[in-house]
Amino acid sequence: MIKDVAFIAYAVRDVPRAVAFYRDVLGLQPSESFSEEYVEFNVGSVAFAVDSSPPGYEPGSCSGLAFEVDDIVKARERLIGSGAEVTEIFEFSPCRACFARDPDGNRFALHQRKT
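RE: above sequence
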């Protein structure tokens, strides 16, 4: 039986560039670094990693990750200020979300639950 999500890893071409993006633009704090080719960030109870050689994935092909934020407008503005490709904010009944790409083209979302 599945108990939890252990980690999510995105394929990237340049790990230092990806670390700089996720650390400096999104504000994630690196945690584990198992090599120069694999670095993890703690995001809540899940580890998010950037990996230069995950089997079966090409850089830029990953998607599905949504980062929960407190203020989606500010988080989106920060992405735009970094030059990232990001959509408008979409309104859904339980949440707001926008969609972006990292420097390798991997897709992710910024998500803010409505209270």
